[in-house]
Amino acid sequence: MYKHPLLDRDKMTPREAMDVLIDGNQRFTKSISLHRDFLDIVDITKNQQHPFAAILGCSDSRTATEIIFDQGLGDIFSVRLAGNIASQFAIGSLEFSCKYLGSKLIVVLGHSNCGAVKAACDHFTGGYIGEILKHIEPAVKHEQAIAGSLDSSDLAFVDRVGHSNVAFQIQTILDKSEILRNMLETKQIGIAAAMYDVSSGLVTFDHSQSLF
Ligand SMILES: [Zn+2]
Fold first, then answer.
1. Cα–ligand 1 centroid distance for 71 (angstroms)
2. Is pLDDT above 60 for 46?
3. Which residue, of 13, 72, 99, 123, is most buried by count of CB atoms within 10 Å of its CB?
4. Alpha-carbon distance 172 to 144, whole Å?
5. 94 with 177: CB under 8 angstroms?
6. What pLDDT is recorded for position 6?
7. For 137-153, what is the mean pLDDT?
């Protein structure tokens, strides 16, 4: 099995996987990302992948997970959809990463100033975008029940919905995936909630919403 040159993933716990991501984001925000010879890693990983984390993030062009967590090829199983929604296909991808590739941690990663969340706040309905936004509506309703009928013009509200949306997507994963629920209960994996700030580059893990 492929071993990362810096990590022994088979012995890694879900919390240690989270610590690796936190350390990587610290490097990113300090502009001291590791120098990697990517072609070297291409060669190391050509027959096997063994990503230690699966990240359900937004497709937003500013939230590339490998970059913001300072990871190389083969490190992160990256599932990206607008609004970091736990669609059936996203959940299937997370199951694949954890059950068959040995990932120790799922991170559901929302971000500030998210366009999909803004569209959901404004109840946009066009095309297939509306299909995406249906997954974010529970978070909008939840936050509007607290704050009243605010919309995307209130950026603080948008970010609160984005934060809530992460929790709702985690709940959807647990409700729908027996495989991941069992892996969590037997402590083979953890599921972490996190938000990325597009203005600072910082990822903040929400430990109260994370499950280990
Ligand atoms: Zn987004």
1. 21
2. yes
3. 72
4. 20
5. yes
6. 61
7. 96
